[in-house]
Design brief:
332 residues, mainly alpha, 69% helix
């Protein structure tokens, strides 16, 4: 019997039920997150229900959700801490375009990492907790409360998703959570002048890094960037566990164990983002460090796994320029 992919619906119910009860003490109108969420949530839900919404259409819906958020909040990404781009952001249409691109990209990134039990949900919990910590340090308790609602909804979902996978987040959940978290981050960036965008990139590091790696390896392989594969970091770890330790028939163990193994790797950058939220140089340096570590670890793991694979009698090739399509699920 197929596993239900309606986790996103339950999370939306929680956001609507509890989010609207949060007092609007700062006149930030955070409840506007809910109507802005609808385009991308409904597109994801249609895909979950079997209506075959293409990846491009889902990305378009994510862009529409960000555009709607811009119109509702009348805010967008105000700065980047990069001199040239920062100057260009003074031109509002360009700043809006960057914001739409960033919001849609984060939506897609959370969908891409939704490949093993608990991974996308736990990453989202870490991101929400990190944003809540920065907001609380700056007196934005209404924003912290919204982050807490997101965390509570996700933790309730994770009870059924991790480790046994009784229910999945689905595209509606992955895209929807990505939109809400992205816009909570954009709003905090507007409300806290000392917050560096480098810190936010650290907080969102894992889904962004995995997405950038996916685009890179598909491009050098001569394939469309939106064509799914089974070469994400979490899939590499899961196969390595099965090849070297658990065996082929232990997916029920290797799947949740992958999330446990990756937990320190996606938590550490987020902690760094919280610790250095107002220190641009240090946050940027740490971003370079974690990006280098991410790529080096992936390449090392790919080589080790490829070396182990022949022992099991199956072909396995992780060469980035010549990998085959091995679709496990829709991941874009």
């Amino acid at each position: 019997m197929p596993t239900p992919r309606i986790g996103g619906g339950a999370i939306l119910v929680a956001l609507v039920s509890f989010g609207v009860l949060i007092p609007d003490t700062g006149n930030h109108n955070l409840w506007l997150l809910l109507p802005s969420l609808m385009p991308v949530f409904l597109a994801g839900l249609a895909e979950d229900l079997g209506f075959n919404v293409s990846p491009r259409d889902r990305l378009l819906a994510a862009a529409i959700s960000s555009l709607l958020a811009i119109l509702l909040f009348k805010l967008w990404i105000p700065r980047t801490d990069i001199p040239l781009i920062g100057a260009i952001l003074m031109f509002a249409p360009f700043a809006m375009a960057i914001t739409i691109f960033g919001g849609a990209g984060i939506c897609n990134a959370f969908n891409l990492v939704d490949g093993v039990n608990g991974l996308s949900g736990l990453i989202a919990v870490v991101v929400a907790a990190s944003l809540a910590a920065i907001a609380a340090q700056n007196g934005l308790f209404e924003v912290s409360a919204w982050c807490a609602v997101v965390m509570g909804a996700l933790l309730g979902f994770l009870v059924f998703n991790f480790p046994l996978g009784k229910i999945f987040l689905g595209d509606a959940g992955a895209y929807g959570i990505g939109h809400v978290l992205a816009w909570l981050a954009f709003l905090i960036l507007n409300f806290v002048p000392d917050l560096t965008p480098w810190a936010l990139l650290l907080i969102f590091f894992w889904p962004i890094a995995d997405t950038m790696l996916a685009i890179f390896r598909r491009r050098i392989a001569g394939r469309p960037a939106d064509q799914p594969d089974r070469l994400h970091f979490h899939q590499l770890v899961m196969r390595a566990l099965e090849i070297s330790v658990l065996g082929r028939n232990a997916r029920h163990i290797s799947n949740p164990m992958t999330t446990v193994i990756l937990a320190p790797m996606f938590t550490a950058p987020a902690i760094a983002g919280v610790l250095f939220w107002n220190k641009p140089a240090m946050a940027a340096l740490l971003l370079v460090f974690f990006a280098t570590l991410f790529v080096a670890t992936y390449q090392f793991g790919a080589r080790i796994t490829a070396a182990l694979r022949p022992q099991s009698g199956h072909r396995f090739n992780f060469h980035l320029a010549h990998h085959k399509r091995l679709s496990h699920r829709k991941d874009l």
